[in-house]
Design goal:
- This protein is an alpha+beta fold and 296 residues long.
- It folds into 2 domains: 58 residues, no CATH class; 193 residues, no CATH class.
- The protein is built from 11 helices and 13 strands.
- Strands 3-7-8-6-5 form a 5-stranded mixed β-sheet. Strands 1-4-2 form a 3-stranded antiparallel β-sheet.
- Helix 5 runs antiparallel to helix 7 and helix 7 crosses helix 10.
Length: 296
């Protein structure tokens, strides 16, 4: 029991407990739980509230605050002990989130270009799909620019874009070890290819997406990718875009049979807001007229 511990001794206890947690980033809730454990385990006075313990940790440099700016109210803050990566920070900002789109493509080695943003997705609650798809509706929906998240969190040179994707029950999300030994949650190869085809603006545009497909075709299963696109159950026929990318990246037409079986009922669009286009009749898809012919 440590009823009359000195400030220095309490700071030492704090540091030991934070190190034993094996975390480098902490939310206010994380710290409150840790500080409650410390007070109970070492019999510290009740007057040492979590807020006082947090202030002591900051005063003694056992913790430091992560300075964040945001385009929208973030309603939270983060504290760190030691170094952390931009990916760890991005994943810490909201619960049950995962790295996606251009960031996942980069981490999978599908592109050499590190994205401008760290893309991190938190799924929305399930929503009922309403309305029926028509060609006129498709034409209208893809005539303008792709909507993009404006929720940007900045820390030093790191810019994080917070996405709010559809509910998928985290389909295709995997856990990997980052280059600094950190644990990261991100979309797997097939889910990443689907996501960047659905939102090419989050992956540097259609040419970068095509390049990523070219790097991926020897590593993926078309049947597994098809099963995933069926499970995602999009209103729009994104399988046509995916089939187009795969064929243009170098896969032969016969190997794409499972995707072809999903129907080609509408003329579709490779991205939003295209001005000059060509049309691929095999996949019934409009695409930018300056897209490379082959990018395997």
């Amino acid at each position: 029991m440590v009823r009359h511990a000195s400030k220095t001794h309490v700071a030492e206890l704090l540091t030991k407990k934070l190190i034993s947690s094996r975390k480098t980033l902490f939310s206010p809730t994380d710290l409150a739980e840790i500080f409650t454990q410390i007070r109970t385990e070492w019999g510290l006075p009740r007057g040492l509230t979590p807020n006082k313990l947090r202030n002591l940790a900051l005063e003694t440099k056992a913790l430091q605050e992560v300075h964040l700016t945001s385009t929208y109210p973030l309603h939270t803050t983060r504290f760190h002990r030691g170094d952390f990566t931009p990916y760890e920070l991005a994943l810490s900002l909201r619960p049950y989130s995962y790295l996606s789109h251009g960031t996942a493509a980069f981490l999978h080695g599908l592109t050499d270009n590190q994205p401008e943003f760290v893309y991190v997705n938190q799924e929305q609650s399930a929503k009922k799909q309403s309305g029926s798809l028509t060609q006129a509706g498709l034409n209208r929906a893809f005539s303008g620019k792709q909507r993009q998240s404006r929720f940007i969190v900045t820390h030093n040179k790191t810019r994080i874009m917070l996405l709010s994707g559809k509910d998928t029950d985290q389909l295709g999300v995997q856990e990997v070890t980052g280059t600094q030994g950190e644990t990261l949650e991100l979309t797997n190869l097939e889910r990443t290819l689907i996501d960047i085809a659905v939102r090419p603006g989050y992956a540097g545009g259609t040419e970068n997406v095509l390049y990523s497909y070219g790097r991926a075709i020897q590593k993926i299963s078309v049947d597994r990718l098809t099963e995933m696109i069926e499970e995602l159950n999009y209103v729009y026929p994104y399988h046509q875009a995916i089939g187009f990318y795969l064929q243009r990246a170098g896969l032969d037409f016969k190997s794409l049979t499972s995707l072809r079986k999903l129907e080609l009922k509408y003329d579709f669009f490779l991205e939003h807001g295209m001005k000059k286009t060509k049309f691929d009749s095999q996949w019934r898809i409009h695409y930018p007229d300056d897209l490379p012919e082959v990018y395997a």
